[in-house]
Amino acid sequence: MINELKQILQQIQKQRPVKETVTVYGNYTESQKEAIYDDSQRRYITQPSLKSCEEVSTVESFVDFIKEELKRRDKATGKLATAIIDSNGGYFTADDDFQKGNCKFKRSLSEQWIAFRDCLGRSFNHEEFLRLMQKLSPSISDFEELYPVFLDIRIIGRAETVSKPFYVKGEKEEGIKIKFKMQGGEDENIVMPESFKIQLPYAKGNYDKLYEVDVQLIYDNRNGINILIQAPKFEKVEEDALLDEVEYLKSELEKYPELLVLFNF
User: Fold this and answer.
1) Which of 122, 161, 207, 228 supports an S-S bond with 221, CB 3.0-4.6 Å?
2) Which H or E run includes 17?
3) β-strand pairing of 53-56 with 100-106
């Protein structure tokens, strides 16, 4: 009995230490870190980072984070750090070894860009088209001259279209001519623009540069007048806006020769 008590006392005196220094293995190197023993799991556990990832919505903020994080980690050359940019935004890791100093760039497009992109390939009746014009008015070139022309259809009212829209070009008029039969029985011709230009900001917070898009309008006379909106070159314009963002990122980060910069789009 006495021997058993001695053994219990010896075990108590030889308790496992609460804290211990352990080796943590990264992708390329290893480091020493303090770990705390977890009785429930019966093993030492290292404490996680306070915050695993930040998130920004503009490329300017993304660049600011990269510069500051590399500065705080004394990585003047950007060694073992990676920046990725893609069609939706990007991602940055200041320490690829132990996956620390992470930042997600989730691009916020301007409201004008989203509104225009979402209308492409869609057909609008007259009232819907007027509301769209008003929404996009800050970006429409010559809006003050264009809008009254489209508004003319409202003056005619619910008159019946009696001819298919057709293209005309003369000394006094150029565009798409549509003939309406008025409620009084007489015919009325209106010449509508076949296209106009729109200048859009790409991302929120960046209105220094506007991207010009040619908007094509296709008219039909089913159930009144309907207008189909097309912009065949919009994909190229969108790609140019993204490439401008890439060039800005490259120029801002060129002072870090060992920073791995990837473009995934």
Assistant:
1) 161
2) none
3) parallel
On whether the CB atoms of residues 73 and 66 are closer than 8 A, the answer is no
Upper half-sphere CA count for residue 216 (Cβ side, 13 Å): 7
Q: What are the pLDDT digits (tens) for 94-134? A: 999 888 899 999 999 999 999 999 999 999 988 899 999 99
Which secondary structure element, helix H or strand E, spans residue 72, and what is its range? helix 59-72
- State residue 219's pLDDT score: 84
On whether the CB atoms of residues 77 and 257 are closer than 8 A, the answer is: yes
The C-alpha angle 202, 66, 252, rounded to 5 degrees, equals: 60
Place of tokens 């005619």: 156
What are the residues whose beta carbons fall under 8 Å from the beta carbon of 54, sequence distance 6 or more? 65, 102, 103, 104
Q: Radius of gyration (Cα) for the chain, nearest Å?
A: 32
- The model carries a pTM of 0.75
Q: Which two tokens stand for residue 173?
A: 């008029």
Write the burial class of residue 115 (CB in 10 Å: 0-12 exposed, 13-18 middle, 19+ buried).
middle
Contact 81, 256 (CB under 8 A): yes
Strands across the sheet with 260-264, in order?
A: 53-56, 100-106, 89-95, 82-86, 260-264
Alpha-carbon span 253 to 245, nearest angstrom? 12
- Tell me the per-residue pLDDT of 159-172, one tens digit each, with 9 for 90 and over: 455 455 555 555 55
User: Can you state the angle between helices 143-156 and 126-135, rounded to 10 degrees?
Assistant: 160
Q: Which residue has the tokens 């200041």?
A: 94
Alpha helices in 157-254 (DSSP H): 234-253
Residue carrying structure tokens 């939706």: 88
Tally: H helices and E strands in the chain:
6, 16
- Give the C-alpha separation, 192 to 221, whole Å: 13
Strand 89-95, strand 100-106: pairing: antiparallel
